[in-house]
Structures are given as C-alpha cells and as structure tokens.
Amino acid sequence: MIAMAKKILKKWVLAGYLIVILFCMFLGFGRTSRFDSFQFSFAITGIPLWIPRHFSLDLLKLWIFSLGNLLAFIPFGVLIPWNLPSGQASFFRSLILFLAGITVLEALQMLTRLGSFDAEDILINTLGFLTGYAAWKFGGRGTKRSDQLLRFCAACLILVALAVVGAEWINPFFR
Q: What share of the chain is helix, strand, coil (3-state, %, to 5)?
C-alpha cells in the first residue's frame, strides 16, 4: 500500500513540476505579447553561462535568465529517473527522454510563437538536467534523509559553480 502511494506521489510531483515549467516556457515572462514571428537559432556560439564582470540592470537580468535556465531544469535530473521503473532508470534512458522532451518543447515554443527554438537553451537545460542527475546520485549515499538532502544541495551548488566556471573556460574556444 505504501509503495503504491509512493509511486503515485512521484508521478504527481513530476506532473506538477512539468506544469510549472510549461507555464514558464509558454505563458510566463510576458511571452504572449513578445513574439510575432517564428524565431529560431540552431547555432551554438557558446555556453550561455558566465561570471558577471560589471553591473548593469540589463546584464543582471540576462545573467539571472541564463542561470535560471540551468537551475529550473535540475529537478528533472531527479524526477525523470525517479519515475522510471527501477530496471529502466538508467542514465542514458533518462537523458534521451529529457532531450526528446526539451527539443519538442522548444519546437512548440517556436511554432506557437510563444518563444523561440534555441539550441543554446537546449544545451543549458541539459546541463541543468545533468547537474540534477549527478547531485541525485551523489546525494543518495547518505544514511539519513536529512543527510541525503544536504548532500544533494551541496552537490548542486558545487556542480552549478563548476558549470559556470567551465563555461567561462570553454566559451573563448567558440569565438
């Protein structure tokens, strides 16, 4: 009985978070009034993460948006494999499912004109998924639930910092 309730709860948590992401991707941030044509970018000119070097309101908004694209998809690195049957919760199966889903959502953003298809968004969203997955694997090693959560949060912070520093290191090669 408890196992069935746990299974249902996992599905509801995934569905609830997916609804939040869908709202943000299609209706949030003034999307319904900003796009009047198909917009797309298949080019990857770098990893859209960086360390701010000076302050301006426009730069701060862009930095928060880019970092948010990473942070918002961390939960999927946990929720997708957590919802797959235990024998199928492999890294590659979860990653392929995520990549297929985010690619379809990006295409739908463009087709509905409620956003754009952007290959760099897929890249940064996938980095978020990978961060969540790696932190979930590391966080699962604690003996108590509080230890697991603490390890997960610490791993997320470290991995996000490494992603930003790694992007800073890799981005000059794109220019």
A: 75, 0, 25
CA distances from 101 to 8, 21, 89, 171 (A): 21, 12, 16, 26
pTM over 0.85: yes
CA distances 159 to 70, 81, 138, 142, 150, Å, are 11, 19, 11, 18, 14
Per residue in 32-52, pLDDT (tens digit) is 666 666 677 888 888 989 888
Give the span between the Cα atoms of 35 and 172, in whole angstroms.
31
CA distances from 161 to 25, 49, 123, 166 (A): 24, 10, 16, 8
Q: Residue 68: how many CB atoms within 10 A of its CB?
A: 14
